[in-house]
Amino acid sequence: MQLIDIYYIINIILSGKLFNVVNIILKSCMYNLCNKKNLEKLKSNIVYSKFENDKWNCTDHTFYSNIIGDANTFHTYKHIFQKLLNALCYVYRKKVYVGNFDSDLCSYMYYWIGDKIYDISDSTQMFTKIMDMLFWEFNITDNGMICQSLNTSIDKDTFKKNKMLYEYSQNHESIRLHTLPINTTCDSEYNETMQKYMNIYKNAHFDCTQGDQTNYDCSYFHKLFKSDEHMKLTSLYCRQQNTPTLSTETHEGHQEEEDNIFPIPTREQYPKSVTPVGGFINKLLGRNMNMHNNIENMDMFNPYSDEMDPGGRRMNISYHRF
User: Fold this and answer.
1) Angle of helix 104-118 versus helix 156-179 axis, rounded to 10
2) Could you tell me which residues are beta bridge partners of residue 185?
3) pLDDT digits over 65-93, tens only?
4) Mind spelling out the 3-state secondary structure of 132-181?
5) Which residues contact 91 (CB under 8 A, 6 or more apart)?
6) Membrane-spanning regions, if any (predicted)?
C-alpha cells in the first residue's frame, strides 16, 4: 500500500480537488520503487523517444530534400542527418496537421538535435552552421514559421547546461509526484538523475543570484525558474534502495498506465461516477484496495500520443513529510 501524507489528502478534500489524489496514485512509482522505467516516463524522455522514431516521413516536403542535399557539405555529420530529419518531420506534422501546437516541442527539438551535433564535435562554428541551415530550411514552408530557433552560437558547455536546466524545468513536477508517497524508494540510477538535476539547478541559482554570473546563462535561467520555486526545486528526496528486489519486468501489464502523462481534469470534466470521498479514502488507507488493478484506456490522456497534441501542464504541490 502506498502511504501519502494524510494532511495533504485532507487539504485536497477540503479544497474540492479529490481528483489530485487520483493523479498522485497514478503518477507514483509502481511497487513503491522508482527506477529506469520511471525515468523513461519523464516528459523530456517521452518527447525524445518520439524524435528517435523513424516512422515520420516527410520526403514529399521541400525542407526534407533541401536538407538531404545540404548534408553532403557536412561530411563528418552526414550519418546523423536522417535522425535529425525524423525529429524535424515529427514536429512539422504536429504543427501543421494536429493543431493546438505545444511550443515546448520546438525547444525539445533544439536540444535533441543540438545534442546529436555536439556529441560529434566540440566546434561551436560547426554547430552554428548546421543549426542555422536546419532551421532556415525547416521554416521555408507554405504554412509559415514552424519553430523559432534558439541560440545557435552557443558553446558546448553552456548548451549542455541549458539542456539540463530546461529538462529539469519540465520534469521536476513528475519527479515530485513519483517520490511523494513516503514509503517510496529509488534505485541508484533514479537517484543519480534526480541529484544531477538538483545540483545543476543549485549551482546555476547560486551563480546567477550570488555569484559573478559567468558560469551559466543567467538570463535563460531566470526565464525557466521563478524565484519563489527555489525551496521546492532543491528539496526533492527519495530513500536509496540498497537491497535487491524482484524484477518488475514480468509485470508489464500492470505498468501500461505509466506510459502516459496524465492531465488533471477540471471538476466539470470529472466523471459523474467518481467514487464518493468516504469510499475513496477507505480504499486509499488500505481497506479493500488492490493497487495493481490494470487501468484501462489511459492513452486518451497522453498529450504525446500521435492523435493528441501536448500541452504544458504544471502542478505546484505542497506537502508535508512525517
Assistant:
1) 130
2) 33, 239
3) 999 999 999 999 999 999 999 999 999 99
4) HHHHHHHCCCCCCCCCCCCCCCCCHHHHHHHHHHHHHHHHHHHHHHHHCC
5) 105, 106, 109, 146, 147
6) 6-26
| Strand extents, DSSP E, the chain | 33-34, 185-186, 239-240
- Give Cα 3 to chain centroid, integer Å: 25
Residue 227 has pLDDT above 60, yes or no: yes
User: Which strands, in side-by-side order, build the sheet including 185-186?
Assistant: 33-34, 185-186, 239-240
Q: Is the pLDDT of residue 298 over 60?
A: no
CA gap 92, 103 in Å, rounded? 12
H helix and E strand count, the chain: 13, 3
Give me the count of residues in the chain. 322
CA distances from 96 to 54, 102, 145, 174, 209 (A): 19, 12, 10, 29, 41
- In this predicted model, which residue has the larger pLDDT, 315 or 221? 221
Alpha carbons 200 and 78: distance in angstroms, whole number: 32
Residue with cell 552560437: 153
Q: Is the pLDDT of residue 112 over 70?
A: yes
Q: Which residues pair with 166 in a beta bridge?
A: none
Quick one: pLDDT at residue 141?
81
C-alpha cell at 257: 498506465
* b/e sequence 233-250, b meaning 16+ C-beta within 10 Å: beebebeebeeeeeeeee
Q: What are 243-283's pLDDT values in tens digits?
A: 554 444 444 443 444 344 434 344 444 444 444 444 434 44
